Amino acid sequence: MTSTWTGRKVREAVGVFRDPESLQQAIDTLLSHGFDRAELSLLADEAAVERSLGHAWRGVKELEDDEGVARASYHSKESLGDAQGGLIGGLGYVGAMAGAGGVLLLGLPLTGTLIAALLAGGAGGLAGWALARRLGRRQAARLGTQLAHGGLLLWVRTRSPEHEARATQILSGHGAVDVHVHDRREPA
Asked: What is the pLDDT of residues 29-46, one digit of tens each?
């Protein structure tokens, strides 16, 4: 895959974590110490990484400083939970309204409308639950694949030498290995 790059270089700190809990703790600390969520990126899923590289990869070590490797934005566990709740609630609501609307259009009594709304809402909620569960499994599979390849990569864009020092201190303090700062060209 060919990427286009701007001439602008940015500095970023990078570290490899051995478990998701340490990664999450480092992210929480970064966010509470002046870093923005938009400055954090993680390694994308295996298929996206291989598409960006044009070949299979063996370990995260080879990807730490690769400016063309596919990355993913950071999304908190809370936002994942919000998405899952939205899927369940949204599909339940749509199902209930569709069921009730269909019965009302047929001119059936109120009891039939309520039963149809409950059944259709339950079916929609069940479909939402299944989609939400799949979303959680995909996230777990992505983390498992990366751990099998040597760890979880976290890149932190920095704005100044002080920012770099704070980022590397936080990464190291939460157990990241191979913590360092490098230049990276910005994608267009």
From this structure: 999 999 998 899 998 888
CA separation for the pair 56, 73 (Å, rounded): 22
Any residues with CB less than 8 A from the CB of 41 and at least 6 apart, and which?
71, 72, 73, 74, 154, 155, 157
pLDDT digits (tens, 9 = 90+) for 121-155: 555 555 554 555 555 566 666 777 788 888 999 99
Q: CA 79, CA 74: separation in Å to the nearest integer?
A: 10
**DSSP helix/strand/coil, 11:** strand
**Which residue, 70, 124, 62, 137, is CA-closest to 98?**
124
Instruction: Please tell me the distance from the alpha carbon of residue 171 to that of residue 148, in angstroms, as a whole number.
Output: 20
**CA–CA distance, 63 with 57 (Å, rounded to integer):** 8
- The full DSSP string for 74-124 is ---HHHHHHHHHHHHHHHHHHHHHHHHHHHHHHT--HHHHHHHHHHHHHHH
Question: Could you give the CA distance from residue 91 to residue 128 in angstroms, rounded to a whole number?
Answer: 6
Torsion angle in degrees (nearest 10) through CA of 150, 169, 69, 28: 90
Which parts of the chain sit beneath pLDDT 70? 1-7, 75-141, 187-188
Q: Pick the closest to residue 149 from 81, 78, 50, 77 (CA basis).
A: 50
- Following DSSP, what letter does each residue of 152-169 receive, concatenated? EEEEEEESSHHHHHHHHH
